[in-house]
Design brief:
heterodimer; A: about 800 residues; Aldehyde Oxidoreductase, domain 4; Aldehyde Oxidoreductase, domain 3; 4 domains; six-stranded mixed sheet; B: about 325 residues; alpha+beta; five-stranded antiparallel sheet; four-stranded antiparallel sheet; 13 helices; about 20% strand
Chain lengths: ~800, ~325
């Protein structure tokens, strides 16, 4: 039985070290090709006719003028008359033409008549107290809503049991659910569900869950020595992928299709496209070498991708490129659900947390939105909570880096920070006092608090709320903590050792710019004991062995486990073949820095190339696997966390906030590629600076249209706005022993909370809602009678 | 983008001959940083583009000791790098450096900057410069007006004038030369801007067949201060800006020109603020009094109250910066 343990310290040339990313040079020099760059001969350009209204019924679609235009090769009506549309930007017609200009002209020539219907886009307003609870039977649509909003499957099953369903699902439906990976508890609940006519309830934008209670919150609040109540929240934001969504589809013949697609899911794409095209997944070839960002929004082919596939077929197989423009991208290619909450927390006289109450709300589009897990991390003994999903006529939510975590962290840890302030306690002391409530990770968090505090100078710089230094610029410190899973996904690869010593691995994974290629090369080089230059990584092709989608920080753990096993097996197969020429048994051999030698006698040695030359004309090929989640993990693991601390400056005259410092301490299991791990962390922290201070999908109440579908007034942090960001990877031996775990999601959760808390520390008042714009900061100051410029003179 | 004709004249005369009698006929193309985006977004669709970049003598900066002439085709980047501008009109230099990004400054021209269209998000989304619903009610007043005007906002124009260098030029007393079919005319820059009363009107006094050819700045012994308050340090539009040019008499202000940007449909010249400084020394108190005077008639449209505060800070800081300058 091969020994698959990760190499120990003596056998690490690359593992855990700072290695330049393998795809750095091609990206820096512009040679890296993205989906957008794929321009095969005979390419047709796709264009969409989108609905300008937030909610409307399509009355008629006249495509005659467009179809007659020279150069228009295919056209498809997506929303036929009678269909209702639910957000501005929804596709009505898709078409393909010989160049972009003709495609756009043709789109403009399509005449669509609508009946405009009332819409609702205001999610920030606290829902009224008296909304009837949704209690009627669930429709198929309600169920789909819950899935797309990532409602926990246990909760879905409970809703099915208590409310029943209004249709009778057939076996095909159950089979589909299984195919989508839906948990058995939901399927069982559906099988046993009472089928009754009716709908979920009155058509209100608000869908409120039942109150969930643990312990005796009323009694606990009555007994609490300290209670605070506050409102906190964050708006809907978009993914802002630098490369917009889209693909190029072409049919070499009527029975197979090639797709170049911007995706986080190379291996899983074909199976999603095939049924709708009457193809088998095996008829579809999917490729992608580079992607300009996904962040959770690029797992499927998307409706517009399917239009491109159909238009290509209609146009005799000619390649059709359908990449969204920035406006449509911002309107409908993904959004993070908003979350707001009125939160009350209580502690006893010693500062022990004893009570929690939250009324949260938020939207993920028409379907309502995810319900953040509250309270986050801290298992406060007495709880009462209720969530209201707000249905808004905006493009649907998608997973956005660490779904639900930034929202839950903000709503929880800002309330705890306010409670600490009320008690006159340093929030770090308060969090530490209650850290046992975070469960098994408590000790790690406590260690991480200490390190983060040293990095930012918490002891020297922290002051009670409200910087008393003269002048308009106030500084403050804040903290936040987070957790994530990060266990490796199912992954398979083929690894070949060529007779000339070259090693290649083929894996149906994708490098999102996160360093997947580099991680794989490091793992293989160290497992085999060879220079990293010998290793060539081939990915981004669904004809390579299947590897999971890159979501939920599952890629590092998945691909490092499968490729490590393959490398160990291939090395052992090689050693078995060359052992006799070194007059030794295979287990007496080792490979160190490209030399194959006898462990006890280094003079009996040969170079890696000499060894490979002995394996025969076709080399050695092995398959490496990382099992799916039904098996216990071995080389990978689940559960990471970290603490982040922010220092901000706030100009109390203008309300302008700057994040001066952001310090992250992160546990990450065994670190494979230190440099790309740190850059992943930095990416998350930069995203957090951006969503904390700038980002917001602004919807016009009158027209229901997005007012900032661009990256001008949809602001993103620029270089000068990104200041001193530092990372400490908390890679203790204990952490290393856990195996490889993904870290990307965690990095983005805590900093937003830390920034909010730092602002409160700087200016002495809480700014309730992100983004912390000058308007919001000044309004919060004014509410507390602190508008520096309001008076007649200073 | 709709198809268009393209012309590339060599002289002013040819250029204006190619321009039209109405705005839909033709547009002047200089740096193109604003126009191309407007065309791509289908906000404007001119039938002809008249590229003026090949017209001679419009790309230079001259200073004879009394007056500076800046050609309309001088790029913002060239102007930002120009030593004479830096020496004689320091806050113009400062405002240019703060504007946009290096890439845009390298393309955008001084004349184009003065003629750029508002950034109002209703306008840029194709809903019109004076956007209204089917009942004729202003979308700005009913909607999200966080970036709209707080001064001169009694309608129907609510957008803010976008140029950050226009307020500075006005504070320095700039004039511009316009060229049209009837020849050249000169205008104080302050009088160039206006708030449209009807959809389809422009934000300035340019006729559809006229173009700006030069900017003139009178030399003067003044102190100048500039402040722009913006959310991001990277490329961003200010929430408010202010240029203050003070003529001093010893330690007191003899006269002042205070001009605010990003607060009104036009660059906002504030004699009220100037009045509070005249005859007084510049102190935190007088600067603050001037700031309050400048915003005394400000009106919150619902979501832009903070802009009143921010604009006051811009005025105060610009005046204090002027007092600091060269001291």
């Amino acid at each position: 039985m091969a020994d698959y343990k990760w190499p120990d310290q003596q056998h690490r040339s690359y593992l855990g070290k700072k290695i330049d990313r393998l795809d750095g040079p091609v990206k820096l020099t512009g040679r890296a090709k993205y989906t957008y760059d794929y321009n095969p001969k005979g390419l047709l350009y796709g264009a969409l006719v989108t609905c300008p209204y937030a909610r409307a019924k399509v009355l008629s679609v006249d495509t005659s003028a467009a179809e007659k235009m020279p150069g228009v090769k295919a056209l498809k009506v997506v929303k036929t008359p009678g269909t209702e549309t639910h957000w501005a930007g929804d596709e009505i017609v898709a078409l393909a033409a010989v160049d972009e200009r003709i495609a756009e002209d043709a789109a403009r020539a399509v005449v669509v008549k609508y009946e405009v219907l009332p819409h609702f886009v205001q999610d920030e307003i606290e829902p009224p107290k008296d909304i009837p609870l949704a209690s009627g039977p669930l429709s198929q649509e309600d169920l789909e809503d819950m899935f797309s909003n990532q409602v926990p499957e246990g909760k879905i099953a409970d809703a099915i049991k208590t409310r029943g369903i209004n249709w009778k699902p057939d076996e095909g439906f159950f089979k589909d659910l299984k195919g989508y990976g839906v948990d058995q508890v939901v399927i069982d609940a559906l099988r046993g569900a009472q089928v009754k006519p009716g709908t979920a309830g009155p058509k209100s934008p608000y869908k409120r869950t039942a109150v969930q209670t643990e312990g005796d919150p009323d009694k606990a609040f009555a007994e609490a020595a300290y209670v605070v109540e506050g409102v906190y929240g964050m708006p809907v934001i978009t993914h802002c992928c630098l490369e917009t969504h889209g693909l190029v589809a072409e049919w070499p013949d009527q029975k197979s299709m090639n797709v170049h697609v911007s995706t986080q899911n190379v291996s899983g794409m074909a199976a999603q496209m095939a049924p709708m095209l009457n193809l088998s997944a095996s008829d579809i070839h999917v490729e992608q070498q580079n992607i300009g960002g996904g962040f959770g929004s690029k797992f499927g082919p998307d409706s517009w991708g399917m239009h491109a596939a159909e238009l290509s077929k209609m146009a005799g197989g000619a390649p059709v490129k359908m990449m969204l423009d920035r406006k449509v991208e911002q309107e409908m290619a993904g959004a993070r659900p908003s979350a707001y909450g009125r939160v009350k927390v209580g502690a006893d006289k010693d500062g022990n947390l004893i009570a929690w109450e939250s009324n949260s709300w938020g939207t993920g589009g028409v379907t309502g939105g995810g319900s953040p897990p509250l309270p986050y991390l801290f298992r406060i003994p007495n709880q009462k909570k209720q969530h209201t999903a707000v249905s808004c006529n905006i493009g649907s939510a998608r997973a956005w880096r660490a779904p639900n975590h930034p929202q839950a962290s903000l709503l929880t840890e800002c309330a705890l920070d306010d409670l600490a302030a009320k008690m006159g306690m340093d929030p770090m002391d308060f969090f530490l006092k209650n850290i046992e409530m975070t469960g098994p990770r408590a000790k790690t968090y406590a260690e991480e608090f200490k390190i983060a505090a040293e990095m930012i100078g918490w002891k020297e710089k922290w002051h009670p709320r409200g910087d008393k230094t003269p002048g308009p610029l106030k500084r403050g410190l804040g903290l936040g903590l987070h957790t994530w899973g990060g266990r490796g996904h199912e992954s398979h690869c083929d690894l070949t050792v060529h007779p000339d010593g070259g090693v290649e691995v083929r894996i149906g994974s994708q490098d999102l710019g996160t360093g997947t290629r580099t991680v794989i090369a490091i793992v293989i080089a160290d497992a085999m004991g060879i220079p990293i230059e010998h290793v060539k990584v081939f990915l981004g092709d669904n004809k390579y062995p299947m590897s999971g989608a890159s979501g939920g920080s599952t890629t590092s753990g998945g691909v490092s486990s499968s490729t490590h096993r393959a490398a160990v097996d291939a090395r052992d197969a090689l050693l078995a073949k060359v052992a006799s020429s070194l007059k030794a048994q295979p287990e007496e051999l080792e490979v160190v820095k490209g030399t194959v030698r006898v462990k006890s006698d280094h003079s009996r040695a040969m170079t890696w190339k000499q060894a490979c030359a002995k394996v025969g004309p076709v080399g050695i090929t092995v398959r490496g696997n990382n099992p799916d989640r039904t098996k216990p993990p071995d080389l990978t693991n689940s559960g990471i966390g970290g603490v982040q601390m922010a220092e901000v400056s706030v100009d109390i005259e203008t309300g302008v906030v700057r994040v001066e410092k952001l310090m992250a301490v992160q546990d990450a299991g065994l670190i494979v590629s230190k440099k790309t791990c740190e850059t992943q962390m930095l990416g998350g922290m930069i995203m957090a600076v951006s969503y904390s201070l700038y980002e917001e999908k602004v919807m016009d109440p009158t027209t229901g249209r997005m007012l900032n579908p661009n990256i001008e007034f949809y602001r993103l942090a620029g270089l000068p706005d990104i200041k001193d960001l530092r990372i400490h990877l908390h890679n203790t031996q204990e952490q290393e022993n856990r195996g490889v775990i993904g870290i990307a999601e965690g990095a983005v959760t805590a900093p937003g909370t830390a920034i909010s808390n730092a602002i409160a520390n700087a200016i002495g008042v809480r700014v309730p809602f992100m983004p912390f714009t000058p308007g919001r900061v000044l309004a919060a100051l004014e509410e507390h009678g602190q508008n520096a410029m309001a008076g007649g003179a200073m | 983008m709709k198809p268009f004709e393209y012309a590339s004249p060599k002289t002013e005369k040819q250029a204006v001959g190619l321009l039209g009698k109405s705005w839909s006929e033709a547009e002047v193309l200089a740096g193109g940083t604003d126009l191309l985006a407007l065309m791509k977004d289908d906000v404007v669709a001119p039938k002809r583009l008249v590229n003026v970049k090949h017209i001679e003598n419009l790309g230079e900066v001259h200073f004879d000791g009394k007056e500076m002439r800046i050609g309309a085709l001088v790029t913002m980047g060239e102007a930002a790098d120009n030593a004479l501008i830096k020496q004689h009109f320091p806050i113009l230099h400062e405002a240019l450096w703060e504007a946009a990004s290096p890439q845009i400054r390298n393309m955008a021209t001084m004349g184009g900057n003065l003629c750029q269209r508002p950034r109002c998000w209703y306008f840029r989304n194709g809903m019109g410069l004076l956007p209204v619903d089917e009942k004729g009610e202003s979308l700005v007043l009913k909607g999200d007006n966080r970036y709209h005007a707080v001064l001169g906002n009694h309608g129907p124009s609510y957008f803010v004038s976008p140029s950050t260098i226009a307020p500075v030029l006005i504070a320095y007393g700039a004039r511009i030369r316009l060229y049209g079919p009837e020849g050249a005319r000169q205008l104080e820059l302050e009088k160039f801007y206006r708030a449209p009363m009807h959809e389809g009107e422009r934000e300035h006094a340019l006729k559809p067949n006229e173009m700006i050819t030069d900017i003139f700045l009178p030399a003067a012994s003044t102190r100048a201060g500039y402040a722009e308050i913006r959310q991001k340090e990277a490329f961003d539009w200010p929430m408010a800006s202010c240029a203050a040019v003070l003529e001093m008499n010893g330690s007191t202000v003899k006269s002042a020109r205070i001009v605010l940007g990003q607060v009104a449909p036009v660059p906002w010249f504030s004699p009220e603020a100037a009045l509070h400084l005249t005859g007084k020394a510049v102190t935190e108190e007088t600067a603050m009094a001037a700031a309050h005077a400048a915003l005394e008639n400000a009106r919150n449209l619902g979501k832009n109250k903070y802009k009143i505060t921010v604009a006051k800070v811009a005025v105060k800081r610009a005046i204090l910066n002027a007092a600091k300058e060269g001291a």
